[in-house]
Write a structure and sequence with these properties.
Layout: E1 4-10, H1 18-26, E2 31-35, H2 46-59, E3 62-67, H3 81-101, E4 105-108, H4 120-140, E5 144-148, H5 159-165, E6 174-179, H6 180-183, H7 189-196, E7 200-205, H8 225-234, E8 239-243, H9 253-268
Parallel strand pairs: 1-2, 1-8, 2-3, 3-4, 4-5, 5-6, 6-7, 7-8
Helix pairs in contact: 1-2, 3-4, 7-8
């Protein structure tokens, strides 16, 4: 296993400001993943992107990944061609912002939900076509796409389906974001790591009860973190763990970040 950096999602519930990034740095958290969803960050505004770039540089925190928008208004597998087209074109704008921020990975959701069983195969084909187009935009901006494994009926809710979604697309341009809180609903997170191997570009880290996503801190749910870390080490992963546990300690940002770093250190000790 190579070096793994400690990271956190930022933008929701707390914005990407110099003050918050200073708290991130003080907690020895090395990376942030900027949320481009839910109006958390104005990535379409060049002045906002420049200000975020300056804030990152001033605090020494790196942003190596962003999380593109998602939801019923932003679905790359949508049967509504107008909606799908708008999502693809806006994602291209987001990918251009990645270059300015120094982000080399853009996390993408394959679909909104629910996805009916009868629509699943057709929507996987639509998703694959959307991702193929976005791969070209990603290459143009020096970015790699990371398709996130999702919960419930979303497309990509198993490792096999995630692989099907990227069939025929170059591994140099698109890989996977393994969200432990999502995959633990249907599969063993360690088994998913072994299955996807070197195509894993990043991780979203949180725990759950095995029933639905909960976004708890590691060691608060049922995930077998020892076997998970053995798999991460076994594939020689080098990159980042982005904690998606925001809000676990309410509005105490400094306390939350301190607890986050402690949980990361526990994982690294396994």
């Amino acid at each position: 296993m190579g070096r793994i950096y400690c990271g956190t999602a930022i933008g929701r519930p707390y914005p990407i400001t110099r003050e918050n990034l200073a708290l991130v740095a003080a907690a020895r958290i090395e990376r942030v993943e900027i949320a481009f969803y839910g109006d958390a960050f104005a990535y379409r505004d060049e002045s906002a992107v420049r200000e975020a770039e300056r804030a990152l540089a001033a605090t020494g925190v790196a942003s190596k990944s962003v999380h593109l928008d998602f939801g019923d208004h932003y679905d790359f597998s949508s049967l509504d061609e107008g909606l799908r087209r708008r999502a693809v074109e806006d994602a291209k704008t987001a990918l251009r912002a990645c270059r300015a921020l120094g982000a080399a990975i853009a996390v993408v959701h394959g679909s909104d939900e629910p996805v009916a069983d009868g629509d699943r195969a057709g929507r996987l084909g639509i998703l694959n076509a959307s991702l193929a187009e976005l791969c070209q935009a990603a290459r143009d901006n020096g970015v790699r796409l990371a398709l996130e494994l999702l919960p419930r009926t979303c497309l990509g809710h198993t490792s096999a389906e995630a692989l099907a979604a990227v069939k025929g697309l170059a591994a140099e341009t698109i890989g996977f974001c393994v969200d432990t809180n999502h995959v633990n609903i249907r599969e063993d997170p360690a088994a998913v790591v072994w299955s996807l191997g070197r195509r894993i570009l990043t991780f979203h880290i949180s725990d759950n009860d095995g029933v639905d996503e909960r976004h708890w801190f590691p060691f608060e749910g049922v995930i077998d973190w020892k076997s998970f870390m053995a798999a991460v080490k076994g594939i020689g992963y080098e990159g980042q763990f982005i904690f998606e546990t925001s809000g676990s300690l309410g509005g105490d940002v400094a306390g939350y970040l301190e607890e986050l770093r402690g949980r990361f250190d526990r994982l690294m000790a396994l």
